[in-house]
Amino acid sequence: MDPELEAFLPMFPVSDLSDPVAARAKLAGVIASVPPPDTSDLAVEDHLVPADPPVPVRVYRPPHARGAVVWLHGGGFVMGDVHTEHPWAARLADSSGETVISVGYRLAPEHPFPAAFDDAYAVLDWAAQNADRLGIDPGRIAVGGHSAGGGIAAAVALRAREEQRLTVCFQLLNQPALDDRQESWSARTFTDTPWWNRAKSTAAWAHYLGGAPASPYAAPARAADLTGLPPAYIATAELCPNRDEDIAYALRLLQANVPVELHQWSGTFHGSHALISAEISQRQNAELAGALRRALAG
Questions:
Q1: Cα–Cα nearest to 20, from 200, 217, 271, 209
Q2: Cβ–Cβ under 8 Å, residues 221 and 249
Q3: What is the C-alpha to C-alpha distance for residues 59 and 61, in angstroms, rounded to an integer?
Q4: Rounded to the nearest 5°, which phi and psi values hold at 116?
Q5: CB neighbours (10 Å) of residue 19?
Q6: Cα separation of 162 and 20, whole Å?
Q7: Mean pLDDT of the chain, nearest integer
């Protein structure tokens, strides 16, 4: 493990997902301790996207932005909202120079699949229909997310390809949760890695699926055909259960003639990019923002 990251391990709270309500409260407490981001150069607005039920979003628009990413937060499908995502969404908008539409999708287990997926797709539709109002080019809308949010983003790209009604120009997938089967070496082996491990992944998928079989829209790794999907940037962490399924998905995209940039970050663990004082985290976050900026440059 990267020595700078290892120094933070004693500070990480022990948690599991057996009690989602308690896990949400613990995450909110951790985020509340993070210094608020500087949003002085951003126009920040909250909206309710018309859907059933309406979906809360927070829009971060830097000066002169023309592209946008519909951004799905992490949290194992059971934690997180636009408030807990605020530091990271603001930083992504500021660093990339592009609009970030942070989605407060419904959470499992109270709202299992397809609730979060439907919410995310509704926001993509809303962004396209309101491009002029948001000051964005409808041809430059990406989807992206971290962890569970990355998996939802990949699923939204699949649906957009199938329905051919909405255009997604790019996928920004950071350590995405793509495969409920957990059959890869990393998924089977990483049982005690920091923050995210096999037990938490198993619980997250159980909450999200609610006992129903997984479809490709729930677990994109199950999709048989990846042709025609938008270009992707996929980042993986070395000590992350999702690592191997993410690399396998990137390879399958490449084999389907989809342009992919894949970066496997040595010495990192799931979510360690949030430890922004570490040099490797700074590089990770800068590269994520740079990939988005290049993709939306038009």
A1: 200
A2: yes
A3: 6
A4: -65, -40
A5: 12
A6: 33
A7: 96
298-to-42, 68, 100, 247 alpha-carbon distances in Å: 21, 12, 17, 27
Give the CA-trace dihedral at 116, 119, 120, 126, to 10 degrees. 180
CA dist 246 and 74 (Å) reads 15
Question: Rounded to the nearest 5 degrees, what angle is found at the Cα of 111, between the Cα atoms of 244 and 155?
Answer: 40
Model pLDDT, residue 13: 66
Q: Which of 12-16, 64-68, 142-146, 240-244 has the lowest mean pLDDT?
A: 12-16
> Burial letters for 230-268: b for 16+ Cβ neighbours within 10 Å, e otherwise?
bbbbbbbbbbbbbbbbbbebbebbeeeebebebbebebb
Q: Mean pLDDT throughout 234-259?
A: 98
Question: Could you report the per-residue pLDDT of 99-127, keeping only the tens digit for each?
Answer: 999 999 999 999 999 999 999 999 999 99
Portion of the chain with pLDDT greater than 70, in percent? 99
Average pLDDT score over residue span 197-225: 97
Tokens 């006992």 correspond to what residue?
Answer: 211
Mean pLDDT of 139-160: 98
Dihedral angle sign, alpha carbons of residues 129, 141, 98, 57 = positive
- Measured CA to CA, the distance from residue 4 to residue 283 in angstroms comes to 13
Let me know: does 280 contact 250? Beta carbons within 8 Å.
no
Give the whole-angstrom CA distance, residue 237 versus residue 178. 14
pLDDT digits 0-9 by tens, 230-242: 999 999 999 999 9
Which residue blocks in the chain are alpha helix, DSSP H?
Answer: 3-6, 20-32, 86-96, 115-129, 131-134, 148-163, 185-189, 198-209, 243-255, 279-295
Q: How far apart are CA 100 and CA 179, in angstroms?
A: 26
Tell me what pLDDT residue 77 has: 98
